[in-house]
Amino acid sequence: MKHATPSLPLRARIARVALLTVGGMIALSALLLLSLFWLVPYAIGTYAPKWVNEVSGRQLTVGDATFNPFTLRLNVSKLSLKDGERTLAAFDLLNIKGAWSSITNAAWTVDEISLVRPVVQTHTARDGTLDWSRFLDSFPKRESSAASDSIPRLILRNISMTEGAVRLTDERAGSSTEAQRRVEFAPLSFKLDKLSTLPRDRGEYALDATLNDQTRVQWKGRVGGNPVESSGDLSISQLPLAKLSAMTGIALPVPLSGTASLQANYTAAFGTDFFALGMGGGTLTVDQLKATQGSDELTLARASVTPLSLSFARTETHTNTPQTVFAVEPLKLVLNDGTVLARGATKQSISFNSLTTEAPVLLGVAERKIVIPRLKLDSLIAQLNRASNGRVVLPFSTDEAPQPAQKTAPAQLGPSPIWTLELGELETNDAKLSFSDASLAMPQVASGLIDVAVGAKIRLGKQSAFTVDAKRVRLREVSVRDETSVPAWLSIKSVNAAPFSYSSEQNKLDLPRFEIVAAQLDATLAQGGIDLGKKFASAGAKKPADKPLPPSDVAVKGADAFITTLAGITLTDGRITLSDTTLPTPQVHTLQSVRVNVDKFVVSSAQPIVANASATIANGGSLQTKLRFDQQKGAGELEYTLEKVALPAYSAYLNQNTKLKLAKGEAAARGTLVFPPTTGNNETLRVQSAIALRDVDLLDETNNASFAQWAELSTTDAKLSVSPSGLTIALADLLLDQPRGKIVIGEDRSVNLAQIAKAGSAKSAPASSEAKPNESAATAAPAPAPAPLPSDSEPTLKSSIARVQVTGGDIEFADLSLRPQFGTRISDLSGLIVGLSTELASRAEVSLEGKVDQFGLARLTGTVAPARASQYTDLKATFRNLEMAKLTPYSGKFAGRTIESGKLSLDLDYRVEARRLKGENQVIIDNIKLGDRVDSPDATNLPLDLAIALLRDSNGMIDLGIPVQGSLDDPQFSYGSLVWKAIVNVLSKIATAPFRALGALLGGSGEEFEAVIFEPGEARLLPPEREKLAKLATALEKRPALKLSVEPRFDRAADRDALADNILKIEIGKRAGLKPPGPNEPLIISFTDPKVQAALDELAANAGDDATKLRAKFLPPPANAITGLIQSARERVTERGRSGVAEARANYYPELFALLKSKQTVPEFAFEALATLRGQAIQNTLTGVNKFDSARVSVAAPSPAKNVKPGQVPTQLALTVK
Questions:
Q1: Nearest to residue 372, comparing CAs of 328, 333, 336?
Q2: CA 400 to CA 126: how far, in whole Å?
Q3: Which pLDDT score, from 0 to 100, does residue 541 have?
Q4: Top-confidence residue, 637 or 141
Q5: Together in a domain, 193 and 306
Q6: Residue 640 pLDDT
Q7: Taking Cα atoms as reference points, which of 995, 1019, 1077 lies closest to residue 1209?
Q8: How many other CB atoms are there within 10 angstroms of residue 44's CB atom?
Q9: What separation in angstroms does the CA of 703 have from each of 660, 746, 811, 812, 891?
Q10: Which residues contact 338 (CB under 8 A, 6 or more apart)?
């Protein structure tokens, strides 16, 4: 039998197997570990770059890689991942040390992970693609495995990163340089003590990073993995908002810049069905915050929110409806040094020192409610600008007019969440507001201080609404000024408003009463008008109004109109100043203590606006007004009362073009000013008033003497109407009580009425009211041409005074140019002028009467066309019982004589028709007595004594008619000249032809009585001349002051021939023995009388050869004695002989007489003797035949006659004064 091998015990066999297994495993592990020395570096340094390149096309390079499988330490250096030339990632050194305690901990355990100088770079192209996304997308996708609810067990210790960098480049940023398109986080440092996913295991961490060498991120705390939670502190400082917005791609309404900083502690946790985040004790600040849009800019030195505490939680429930909880703890918001600059503005549009929530702000997310209990705004400065195009320039707004929204179908949305914002009180004090308006012709700037305390409640949602609660509103130091000048033309000390509220859910606004204190308005009146109108005139032509937007679809048809009610306006202690620069010396007029009260009214309603105002006039006087304005009709009525307005304050207006000043006087007015409705009425303004000017005294500044005065100039019913067709003024009555005035002719012959106009004033009168009596026609001022009639389209002035009453007037007249000077006075002047009007067809009745000096009377009556006096005037002026002694200065100046006594009465009747003057002047002088002569260069050399004697009748009365006529269109027309010329003409005619003045008494023209006609050589009066002397004697009996002077005349030529004839005839008569003629008988001889012929023959013997020749011509002598005897016999015997001789003698003796008369000598004394005889014949006839007073007849010395007619020798008669 064969024996079996003995087997080992079972325990030994099991031990052996175990030993072999463990040994094998140890050997295998050792072999594996030893292989890792080479495999891991190979996989990292060789295989990984190749695989990455094959899969993604990127270049992965590794400088060096080592791995110690025993210590589990991996070192990788100089790793770089590139996409072309661009580096995606790189680091200098990666050190990872694993831990064998992973076996005992039953969790992957790493004792150390350190990364030195890691760099991660991302690049976003212009199309928005990210290079890292393209890199990752290049790897093959694996099917996702089922999600695991378990968390890997992991323990990481001592994780650190030093000198890291993350660079983000975005080509979409639009910046010009790469540095501006890149955000860099460098250097980055991170340290984590422990990160564990084991339950309730926590680790410390810390992160320190710098962004673009500016932003620093510090993050430290504890972190756990199971559950995932973290808590700690986060600090971010100097984070550029512009960079953040550009890199995150968040599109903001306006670009932002500035740096943000955040300090806060936090707690975060999340799991599979929840997420929670909490932040507490945080502070968020933004420094140098700036928002820009075009040239608009908003800056804040600092904005801060503290404490920033919030919580957020989201959980998944069994209903699969997530539950979210968000809460914010009360916080405080502070904004410091805010500034908003508008386009084109050189000053800030809005600025403030701080905006602070003085009480915590409550944000109720669940309630959708924000409550700001109190908001304080300090040192607010706001300036709005209105551009030249008329639009208000608001920061971050557009100049384009809003376009109507396109109608679209309403989106089918769910109900909008309703949020509520409650502002308990917004308070700002001493806020400076300013508004500039460049759209005006004169740009204006308004400014002021405002104190406001206002609350608000705003509901946002489908039906938004808001409520404003104005607790306190006060404006102070309000001013409005021209942009180019510093002084304000409108200033208000304060405007106060009582508390009021408004809700958008109500259809009305109830405004409180506004109280305006110490408002001052300064206006300037220049040549172009009051500057207030220019201040608000548009800078350019009116632009067409924007087309109205179509009505909103939200508007409810038939909704009630919005109602605005104003409780009233009160103004106290106001002041209005008007500076009038139109005068040479600017005048300032001030209304002070102005008070205005506007009663409560509803805006744009049928309720009228009622306002009362009162003021005192700084220079004296008061003003009260009451306004009632119809808002719907645009019509109003203003009742006003002016009392005791001191007129001297307005003297400069009178003195502007005149030399008059208002020394004293008061004005008063009471009336109504009506603004008719703006439509349906051509009348734009209507005034009805009572006006009075009392105790007025006008001074002449040249001598500082009173020029005119009156006690009252008033009307109880004055009406004024303004319309496009013109201005109409109508006075029912006008009272002029106790007017006092002076009409003075100066030493230079100027009239004070004409001299009151200053040189250069419009249409100033000439220096003298009348031309001098001896003024030449060439120097007379031409008369103005008649004004053209206005056309129907031109605005016209229509005025009328129904009745003018003058009472108690007193006018003094003085002529200082005379020596002695003249003066008189018309007192108790009273009367009526009825119907004054500018209507062309109107006629005014005039009736005025006054007392001249003590007992004289002056009266003016008649009719005149006020608007066309040159076309129609019919006036009668009557003067009675004027003392002529007072006219001595005039008689001395113009006539060279004084007047000792006498009375003067005048009836002056003047008519003007069709610009032609026809006047009838009747002058009656009673017992005038002239005095001594006066030496005056202007005196006319007229025989006044003779004129008076000729004109004065036996009762001492002179009744003289002086007609005056002329054309007003005559450039040399002067009424004074016409009258004086008429007087001079009358007196001149009297002086040059005094007998003509007696024509009415003599029964003819009177010119034939100027001389008595004698035949040449005769002294006897013919019957016609004797009749003439009889009539003259009768007429002179009626002019007892006249004397008749006979001026004997002789004519040497005519009288010599007659005297020679008479002497020769007397001699012939003597020789012929004829009887001498009687005194009044003619001396006659007959040349056929033989005695006369014999006497002539005797005289011819002494005539010389001329007589012999003449006889031989007519009676030739015989040639011899025989012839002589025959001729003598024929003459005696035959008839023919006798007739021949008779005819020869008839022709011869007249010729002989003429020859002898031419040779007759007439002695010189014979002429004067003949003239003397003629004078004596006249004298004897008057005194002897006609019984005329011989004392009133005188005969002058003989003198030669002038202007002798053939066959007549006149003897002149002259009238003189006794």
A1: 333
A2: 32
A3: 47
A4: 637
A5: no
A6: 92
A7: 1019
A8: 20
A9: 10, 12, 18, 16, 28
A10: 298, 299, 300, 301, 350, 351, 352, 355
Residue 833: what are its φ and ψ, rounded to 5°?
-125, 120
Residue with tokens 């700084």, as numbered in its chain:
618
Q: What is the pLDDT of residues 1148-1174, one digit of tens each?
A: 788 878 887 777 778 888 888 888 888
Q: Which of 224, 250, 276 is the last residue of a domain?
A: 250
Number of Cβ atoms within 10 Å of the Cβ of 159:
19
CA-nearest of 384, 322, 331, 338 to 361 is 331
pLDDT for 899-935, tens place per residue?
A: 888 887 778 787 877 777 777 777 788 877 777 877 7
Query: Which percentage of the chain shows pLDDT scores above 70?
Result: 75
DSSP state, residue 952: B
Query: How far is Cα 70 from Cα 197, in angstroms, rounded to an integer?
Result: 25
| pLDDT given for residue 777 in this prediction | 36
Indicate if 1072 and 1147 belong to the same structural domain: no
617 located within any domain: no
The structure tokens listed for 888 are 């001595």
- pLDDT tens sequence across 443-463: 888 889 998 989 888 887 777
What is the band of 408 on the pLDDT scale with cuts at 50, 70, 90?
A: very low
1092 and 1181 belong to one structural domain? yes
Percent of the chain with pLDDT over 90: 8
Structure tokens, 497: 């408003």
Strands 59-68 vs 73-83: parallel, antiparallel or unpaired? antiparallel
Domain end position, chosen among 227, 250, 273: 250
User: Is the residue at 764 inside a domain?
Assistant: no
Query: How many CA atoms are closer than 13 Å to the CA of 334, on its beta-carbon side?
Result: 15
Count: domains in the chain: 7
Residue 741, φ and ψ in degrees, nearest 5: -155, 170
Is residue 411's pLDDT more than 50?
A: no
Which residues constitute the domain of residue 913? Answer: 840-992
CB atoms near residue 241 (< 10 Å)? 19
- Collapsing DSSP states into helix, strand and coil, what is residue 1048? coil
Q: Using pLDDT thresholds of 50, 70 and 90, give the confidence band for residue 768.
A: very low
DSSP structure string for 1091-1107: HHHHHHHHHHTTSTHHH
Type of residue numbered 648: P
Are 498 and 510 in contact, with CB atoms under 8 Å apart?
A: no
Contact in structure between 867 and 859 (CB atoms under 8 Å): no
DSSP per-residue codes, 674-696: EE--SSS-S--EEEEEEEEEEEE
Residue 961 lies in a domain: yes
Instruction: Please give the distance of CA 502 from its chain centroid, rounded to a whole number.
Output: 41
d(CA 208, CA 1073): 189
Q: What are 585's strand-pairing partners?
A: none
Can you name the residues that pair with 232 across neighbouring β-strands?
221, 266
* Separation of alpha carbons 336 and 345, rounded Å: 22
Helix (H, G, I), strand (E, B) or coil at 1168: helix
Sign of CA dihedral 493, 499, 505, 507: negative
Question: Considering Cα of 269, then 274, then 277, then 278, what sign does the dihedral take?
Answer: negative
Q: What angle do CA 1052, 1053, 1056 make, to 5 degrees?
A: 70
pTM: 0.65
940 lies in some domain? yes
Residue 737 and residue 828 in contact, taking contact as beta carbons nearer than 8 Å:
no
130 touches 124 (CB < 8 A): yes
Structure tokens at 701: 């500044």
Mean pLDDT for 183-198 is 73
Q: Is 1194 helix (H, G, I), strand (E, B) or coil?
A: strand
How far is it, in rounded angstroms, from Cα 1080 to Cα 511? 129
Indicate whether 138 pLDDT > 70: yes
